[in-house]
């Protein structure tokens, strides 16, 4: 399925006292990858919420292989796992500049109707954007 890749330079504030990226920051890196993935297929997360649909994370699994440190450039590859239903699933691979795998991850998000606060099918424009890309 379709994938996208972004680069992120690790900032000092994202590291711990040893100069290694704090594990909790990987959730932010995954979010950045996911939002850019959506943007590149023509979907604005902001507009989706303005239209009454939110997309909270309901599951996240990370496997840490190697550390990233301050000022490293990391690549976040984001890939759609399968066609969305009421949920949308992504796979990620974070690598360093040498191409070494630092982290692999998966997230599951659920489309929620903001009026009813219940799961809903993905908006048609998202499905259309997926078919067009």
Describe the structure.
The protein has 133 residues and is α+β, with helices and mostly antiparallel strands. The protein is built from 3 helices and 8 strands. The longest helix is centred in the first third of the chain and has 16 residues, at 25-40. The radius of gyration is 16 Å and the shape is elongated.
Evaluate the radius of gyration.
Answer: 16 Å
Question: Number of DSSP strands?
Answer: 8
SSE order: EHHEEEEEEEH
For the sheet with most strands, the description reads: 5 strands, antiparallel
Roughly what fraction of the amino acids lie in strands? 35-45%
**Which geometry do the CA atoms define?**
elongated
Approximately how much helix is present in the residues? 10-25%
Number of helices: 3
Q: Give the helix/strand class.
A: alpha+beta
Average pLDDT over all residues:
95
End-to-end CA span? 10 Å
Going across the biggest sheet, name each strand in turn. Answer: 1-4-5-6-3
């Amino acid at each position: 399925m379709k994938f996208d890749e972004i680069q992120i330079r690790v900032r000092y504030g994202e590291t711990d006292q040893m100069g290694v990226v704090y594990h909790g920051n990987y959730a932010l890196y995954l979010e950045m990858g996911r939002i850019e993935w959506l943007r590149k297929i023509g979907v604005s997360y902001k507009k989706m919420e303005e239209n009454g649909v939110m997309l909270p994370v309901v599951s996240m699994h990370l496997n840490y292989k190697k550390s990233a440190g301050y000022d490293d450039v990391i690549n976040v590859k984001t890939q759609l796992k399968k066609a969305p239903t009421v949920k949308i699933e992504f796979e990620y691979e974070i690598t360093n500049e040498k191409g070494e795998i630092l982290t692999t991850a998966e997230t599951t998000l659920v489309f929620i109707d903001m009026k009813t606060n219940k799961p809903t099918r993905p908006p048609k424009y998202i499905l259309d954007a997926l078919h067009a890309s």
